[in-house]
């Protein structure tokens, strides 16, 4: 692998071999080359490429999209080169929508303890365990939520999804994504996005590794419209990083696994497919440090909607209703007066799958632990447990730093259906609904209500 001559042309290298200031869908183009003078100037597909390379385009949108997202890659071999026909394989724990098992109920309030590591060696592919699915991959709508458990690296094995882009949220352990367009390291408190169609392998840097994946079948993730918030706070485009070019020129028997319409197929190749020497465009893998997210909130009274914590959104065909919102609840100051500060009791049209990266979530101080998850499906009521309600109702409302907390939400307009694994094998907390069973009646006919 060439790592000595990596250099972006327009932007400076930052840490972790990434380049700053990039977010697809906002008109940014980027170029980087691992060998000097690889990129053709003033053209995309010259009659002959430098170094005897092949020009190949990866498109993430239709050709006539108002903001086309595509990347030109200059590679040692065209990616179509493979030696065997695609053969179906089975990854039994990885499910795709539509998937609604008849004997698994998705109607209820659910919470899981962290999924434990097993002694069975697991790679990125074999360690993917689907918890919920929503929508329909065949119509490119909806999503799936997964837990990944990784105990060993992929060696001469590669993967890409034709179905989806994948938002990776580590909770434990570090991973390295060797992609066609360069290398991205990701660890807890960071996220990575692997675009649809991008080939990569996943290496375990230290482990075992556990985390969460939102598999997005629909329109790509983008930054939310900020409206009255304006130009600052939330997630800023400059904090999203892309890799610089790095290529492998290795003739070694390898495999490529493709996810297509929920099916998995494998083919043999005689070389590493990560042989892109240079690339330019606006369709690339990304990483983002969640500690760069700046929350906003009420500074006098009242409780804003959780939409103010949206990091990324994948639009749907209905304005104002997302295919997916990725929402982050991190450390922040609580200053609102005469206000119930934790999330209130509610039910809404969005289905909410939450995960705890670290610390304590203010609405559920017990039971919702790091590595754990909860699901509150569309139009099912939920809210704080008794301890959180009583504490927030009677607290002295002074300025207070909510510290040691980072949880997230995969929120979608579609109902999320539990898989067999989520309903039968994952560590479901059967007593979760008991956290509301001792809620007391305070109504006594007096204005105070207590």
**Radius of gyration computed on alpha carbons:** 23 Å
Can you name the CATH architecture of the domain at 293-427? Sandwich
Strand content: 35-45%
The outline comes out as globular
Number of helices: 2
Task: Give the SSE layout.
Elements: E1 7-8, E2 18-19, E3 30-33, E4 54-59, E5 70-75, E6 87-89, E7 109-112, E8 128-136, E9 141-150, E10 157-161, E11 165-179, E12 182-186, E13 190-194, E14 200-216, E15 240-243, E16 254-260, E17 263-269, E18 276-281, E19 286-289, E20 310-318, E21 321-334, E22 351-359, E23 373-376, H1 386-394, E24 400-412, E25 417-418, H2 420-425
What tags apply to this protein structure?
Jelly Rolls, 10-stranded antiparallel β-sheet, mainly beta, 3% helix, 6-stranded antiparallel β-sheet, 450 residues
């Amino acid at each position: 692998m060439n790592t000595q001559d990596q250099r972006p042309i327009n932007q400076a290298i930052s840490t972790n071999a990434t380049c700053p200031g990039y977010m697809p869908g906002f008109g940014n183009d980027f170029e980087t080359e691992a060998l000097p003078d690889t990129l053709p100037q003033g053209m995309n597909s010259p009659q002959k490429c430098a170094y005897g390379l092949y020009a190949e385009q990866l498109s993430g949108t239709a050709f006539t999209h108002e903001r086309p997202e595509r990347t030109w890659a200059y590679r040692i071999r065209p990616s179509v080169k493979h030696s065997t026909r695609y053969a179906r394989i089975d990854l039994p724990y990885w499910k795709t929508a539509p998937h609604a098992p008849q004997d698994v109920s998705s109607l209820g309030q659910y919470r899981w303890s962290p999924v434990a590591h097993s002694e069975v060696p697991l790679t990125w592919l074999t360690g993917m365990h689907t918890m919920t699915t929503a929508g329909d991959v065949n119509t490119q709508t909806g999503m799936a939520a997964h837990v990944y458990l990784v105990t060993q690296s992929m060696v001469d094995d590669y993967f890409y999804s034709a179905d989806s882009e994948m938002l990776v949220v580590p909770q434990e352990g570090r991973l390295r994504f060797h992609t066609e367009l360069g290398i991205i390291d990701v660890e807890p408190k960071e996220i990575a996005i692997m675009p649809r169609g991008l080939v990569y392998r996943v290496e375990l840097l230290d482990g075992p590794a556990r985390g969460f994946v939102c598999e997005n079948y629909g329109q790509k993730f983008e930054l939310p419209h900020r409206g009255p918030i304006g130009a600052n706070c939330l997630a800023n485009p400059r904090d999203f990083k892309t890799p610089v070019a790095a290529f492998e020129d290795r003739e070694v028997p390898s495999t490529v696994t493709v996810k297509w319409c929920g099916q998995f197929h494998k083919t043999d190749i005689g070389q590493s497919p990560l042989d892109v020497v240079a690339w330019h465009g606006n369709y690339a893998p990304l990483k983002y440090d969640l500690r760069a997210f700046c929350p906003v909130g009420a500074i006098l009274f009242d409780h804003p909607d959780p939409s103010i914590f949206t990091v990324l959104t994948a639009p749907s065909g209905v304005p104002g209703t997302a295919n997916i919102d990725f929402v982050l609840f991190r450390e922040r100051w609580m200053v609102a007066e005469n206000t119930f500060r934790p999330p209130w009791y509610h039910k809404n049209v969005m289905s909410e799958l939450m995960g705890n990266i670290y610390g304590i979530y203010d609405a559920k101080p017990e039971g919702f632990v790091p590595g754990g998850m909860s699901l509150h499906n569309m139009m099912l009521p939920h809210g704080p447990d008794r301890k959180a309600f009583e504490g927030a109702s009677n607290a002295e409302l002074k300025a207070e730093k909510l510290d040691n907390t980072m949880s997230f939400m995969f929120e979608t307009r579609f109902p999320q259906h539990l898989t067999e694994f989520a309903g039968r094998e994952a560590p479901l907390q059967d007593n979760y609904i008991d956290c509301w069973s001792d809620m007391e009646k305070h109504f006594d006919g007096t204005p105070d209500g207590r």
